[in-house]
Amino acid sequence: MRRLSFLLCLCTLALSIVVGCSTQPTVDIDGKKKIAGELRNNKLYAAAIDEYKDILDVTSLDRQQRGNINYLIAKIYFEDIQDYNSAAAYYIRARTIDPNGSYVEEASRNLVASLEKIGQTIDAARELRGATNIDSVESKPGDVLVAQVGDRKFYMAEIEDRIQSLPPSMQKQLADRASRVNFVRQLAGVELLYRAAVREGYDQKTDIRKAMDDYERSVIVDRFLADKVMNDMKVDSVDVRTYYQAHRDDRYDGRPYDSVRAQVFMDYQNDKAEVAYNEYLQKLARAEQFQLYEKNIR
User: Fold this and answer.
1) pLDDT in tens, 82-139
2) How far is CA 290 from each of CA 10, 222, 284, 287, rounded to the nearest angstrom?
3) Beta-bridge partner residues of 145
4) d(CA 51, CA 30)
5) Considering the entire predicted model, what is its pTM?
6) Cα–Cα distance, 67 to 98 (Å, whole number)
7) CA angle, 109 as apex, 105 and 114 as ends, to 5°?
8) What is the per-residue pLDDT for 136?
9) CB neighbourhood size of 284 (10 A)
10) How much is the pLDDT for 121?
11) Position 31 confidence tier, pLDDT thresholds 50, 70, 90
């Protein structure tokens, strides 16, 4: 009887140990992620990483959650601490755990940048070759390859198109072969710098994104004006001479028309363009019910 009681006690103790070991305390994952985010915002980077690592200890995490936490840790090492060894390790973990994660493209870029930072250029080149976000230009039939940066290929047809888009004076400077070789070198240099900047996240910086948006807006507006306003402008020689007569003394100091004809033509064209621009703008303002509250402008 005493032996049976002893065995029962042992079984009860063993069961309690097994149950205790198999039961994991409930962890508020969202709460700990929020705490980690607050810690990072307050530049308490080591503490933020500790919070994320606590989440990784939760065995019930699914693949997407585990990959995302590794990615968030990698970002802190990469962006805030500049510990590129640790950043590379966690980017590799994140990408391996969840190859389809929304962060994979950024993780791949930053992994390459991290490897470059720690001097592992061969590994960085290998990762770069395997990246899927590198732009490529399709060649035309009969075209020839003139340069290559990673997977980015420069063909002669593209070089010719770029040269054709330059002002005539610059096109003349690129007439000989040596000048064109140097031109291609410069394009490749810009590509190398651009790719390095993108890998370090410069394309996501707020001030750069704003400058890019402003530039894109100005290009669209310039093209729109050229098509909708300037394209309809007609220049009549009689109107140009009339313009000269009206401004002969105040703009041209009474000089003969033939001696200032080119300047008169440019001035007439600019004034006419400004009038057309303002008229078109007023038309759009009426359609959009534009209001200007000058008294509120300080």
Assistant:
1) 888 898 889 989 988 998 888 888 888 888 888 887 777 666 666 666 654 444 445 5
2) 86, 21, 8, 8
3) 155
4) 11
5) 0.47
6) 5
7) 140
8) 45
9) 10
10) 65
11) confident
- 29-130: CATH topology is 1.25.40
What would the mean pLDDT of 241-258 be, rounded to a whole number? Answer: 89
| Residue of 257, 258, 259, 262 lying closest to 245 (CA atoms) | 257
Dist. CA 20–CA 25, nearest whole Å: 10
* Position with higher pLDDT, 2 vs 167: 167
Spatial CB neighbours of 203, under 8 Å, sequence gap ≥ 6: 197, 209
Gap between the Cα atoms of 91 and 99, Å rounded: 11
Amino acid letter, 124: A
138-189 pLDDT per residue, tens: 555 668 889 988 878 888 888 888 888 888 888 889 888 899 999 999 999 9
pLDDT tens digits, 191-204: 899 888 888 888 77
124 in Cβ contact with 116 (< 8 Å): yes
**Angle between helix 156-164 and 177-199 (nearest 10):** 100
8 Å CB contact between 188 and 147: yes
Rounded Cα gap, residues 85 and 79, in angstroms: 13
